[in-house]
Write a structure and sequence with these properties.
By secondary structure, this protein is mainly beta. It is built from no helices and eleven strands. Strands 2, 4, 5, 6, 9, 10 and 11 form a seven-stranded mixed sheet that branches. A four-stranded antiparallel sheet has the order 1-3-8-7, with no helix packed on it. A hairpin with a 4-residue loop joins strand 7 and strand 8. The termini are far apart. The model has no long low-confidence stretch (mean pLDDT 93).
């Protein structure tokens, strides 16, 4: 069982930056895709960014491309989401997820483990 713990959310003004962290309690990500999703109030959960842990492949939603960066720290078993130039539309609960082994996808069903979420609020 892999436990994912997010941190780094908070309140920031439009144009500002935040860095989210997702630490795994145990286990290895070597065969998994790690991703960030978000869910705004009253909306469905949506894909934000993904990283294929072993190869380093990256994929971003069009809405965040050029503003958000997903990265990892192998030694700490941690994945990050650096969010720059934040907009009010980025306000949501952000979730870290680990995919089923061998699956490379942006679809929610492809993810096996989820964190508890961290709130990001961007004031305009």
């Amino acid at each position: 069982q892999v436990q994912l713990v997010e941190s780094g959310g908070g309140l920031v003004q439009a144009g500002g930056s935040l860095r989210l962290s997702c630490a795994a309690s145990e286990g290895t990500f070597s065969s998994r895709t790690l991703a960030w999703f978000r869910q705004a109030a009253g909306k469905e959960r949506e894909f934000v960014a993904a990283m294929r842990w072993s190869e380093g492949y990256l994929y971003y939603a069009d809405s965040v491309k050029g503003r958000f960066t997903i990265s990892r720290d192998n030694a700490k078993n941690t994945v990050y989401l650096q969010m720059n130039n934040l907009e009010a539309e980025d306000t949501a609960v952000y979730y870290c997820a680990a995919g089923h082994p061998g699956v490379w996808t942006a679809v929610i069903g492809g993810y096996e483990y989820w964190g508890q979420g961290t709130q990001v609020t961007v004031s305009s």
